[in-house]
Design brief:
Elements lengths: L15 E5 L4 H16 L5 H10 L3 E5 L4 H16 L5 E5 L2 H13 L11 E4 L1 H9 L27 H4 E2 L2 E2 L4 E14 L12 H10 L12 H14 L13 H4 L1 H18 L22 H9 L6 E4 L3 H8 L6 E4 L6 E9 L7 H10 L3 H11 L12 H10 L8 H6 L1 E2 L4 H16 L6 H11 L3
Parallel strand pairs: 2-3, 10-11
Antiparallel strand pairs: 1-2, 1-4, 4-10, 5-6, 7-8, 7-9, 7-10
């Protein structure tokens, strides 16, 4: 969840890491390296992969633990799916960025294939980009799993682009799609008629002025706040080409062009600040705008009636939260912004030094079946990463029948407005600019702030 599932936030920020307990790590080093080379060369039959996986022992499965519903799903659904193949599993909760740092430190210390601690990471965005840039990934495995028949990877198929790019970084089959997330905004129809809610950032500004204190957004670097700002930058891009230029690598875009593209969006954020929650209520008044630190903090203020908008990654969350009692039954999703609602995928990837690569592959395959994706949809409202066109008619009907109520929007409307996330290399620099220019109200010029943020992040 652009769901970035990191300590920043992801959307819908999220993690899976699998560490396999082996019998003899020194002996396994050479075996794991040879297996990796042979598998990537297409020289190992799947039955042999499964046989090796069973010999590798129990799976130490680390995952983002920020959702109790997700935690329960891992225990009640994922556990039996993996154990039925003959692989033990021990679930642990952790943070994606911590695991990425562990992988990189182990590789830097000389721990090559078969001698690391992590086998699979639930990952996306800048964390995937970091591993990819440091040559820390297992290789192009995704299309070699039996379950890959349910996913579009062909570059000649326009529908495969969401599987082939992760925050602008080519996946090149180095990670398997696991869950799709779209940024959504919701209102309580008892307080604000969804038909009268602003549908663009251009309409949000006069609404905020007319209703001071009734709107705010999550503070970056939380992924919800960052995504809100990215969507704003798409709409206010002076070239009016939306997201296209924001998919470029920083080195291709350049700092001067970047500053030009984001300038109008950051001026917008300064203009609306007096009208945010706690902002003072009128232009020229220096209030103390309140930017909730997390999605949960914003939701609490929304449910308490302090603000009229909530936002999250996950189009089915409203239905889930109404059924759980977290939301009142009058909450509805709205289309916002019409100019583009950011959608991204989270993935399962394997580090290059995975100690048990066969078990990693088998575990990922078990979590990539239609049954697994259907259960995530039904039990916790995670939009499936399965490509519907690859399913037969009966399977498609099962997914359609199982989908939770979208509470105010339609699949067609969401799909028509789905746009990709910004390039992962731009995420941290946008956050850094927000912290100084908006949160700290720096008196320095905008161009100076952009240039320093760019340089400080080594761009």
């Amino acid at each position: 969840m652009r769901r970035r599932l990191t300590g920043r936030a992801i959307a819908f920020g999220a993690l899976v890491a699998i560490s396999i307990v082996g019998c003899d790590r020194a002996a396994e080093h050479d075996g794991a390296s040879a297996f990796r080379d042979r598998f990537l060369a297409g020289e190992v039959e799947w039955d042999a992969v499964v046989e090796r996986a069973r010999s590798e022992g129990r799976v130490e499965f680390y995952h983002w633990g920020g959702s109790e519903a997700l935690n329960s799903w891992f225990e009640l659904i994922a556990r039996p799916a993996i154990e039925s193949i003959g692989i033990g599993v021990h679930f642990r909760r952790s943070d994606t960025r911590d695991v990425v740092d562990l992988i990189l430190s182990e590789i830097a210390s000389g721990r090559g294939p078969g001698s690391g601690s992590v086998d699979v990471v639930w990952i996306n965005g800048e964390n995937f980009r970091t591993l990819r840039m440091n040559d820390a990934l297992f290789g192009a495995f995704a299309d070699r799993l039996p379950s890959s028949v349910n996913f579009a990877f062909d570059p000649d198929d326009p529908g495969s682009s969401i599987n082939r790019f992760d925050f602008g970084t080519p996946t090149d089959l180095m990670e398997m799609p696991w869950a799709g997330f779209q940024f959504t905004v919701r209102v309580d129809a008892d307080r604000l008629d969804p038909a009268e809610a602003p549908a663009t950032f251009a309409a949000l500004e006069p609404w905020a002025r007319a209703n001071p204190g009734r709107f705010t957004y999550v503070a970056p670097p939380h992924y919800i706040g960052s995504t809100f700002i990215h969507a704003l930058l798409y709409e206010t891009n002076p070239d009016s080409d939306g997201y296209t230029l924001f998919l470029n690598e920083p080195s291709d875009l350049g700092v001067t062009e970047f500053a030009r593209l984001i300038g109008p969006g950051f001026e917008y954020l300064r203009r609306i600040e007096p009208y945010l929650l706690g902002g003072g209520g009128r232009s020229g008044v220096q209030g103390a705008p309140i930017y909730p630190a997390s999605a949960a903090a914003l939701q609490a203020r929304f449910v308490a009636g302090e603000v009229d908008f909530d936002m999250e990654f996950g189009v089915y969350d409203v239905d889930r939260d109404i059924r759980s009692g977290r939301y009142p039954p009058t909450v509805r999703n709205i289309i916002f912004p019409e100019s583009g609602m950011i959608k991204d995928m989270s993935y399962l990837a394997i580090p290059r030094n995975a100690p048990a690569p066969a078990a990693a592959l088998v575990a990922i395959d078990a979590l990539s079946t239609p049954e697994s994706h259907l259960s995530k949809l039904v039990e916790i409202g995670f939009a499936p990463a399965i490509d519907p066109a690859r399913l037969d008619r009966e399977e498609r009907a099962r997914f359609l029948a199982a989908a939770p109520d979208l509470r105010g929007v339609t699949e067609e409307a969401l799909a028509a407005r789905a746009v990709p996330s910004v390039n992962a290399g731009l995420v941290d620099v946008i956050d850094a600019i927000w912290l100084e220019y908006i949160a700290e109200q720096s008196a320095r010029s905008f161009d100076e702030i952009v240039l320093d943020a760019w340089r400080n992040l080594g761009l």
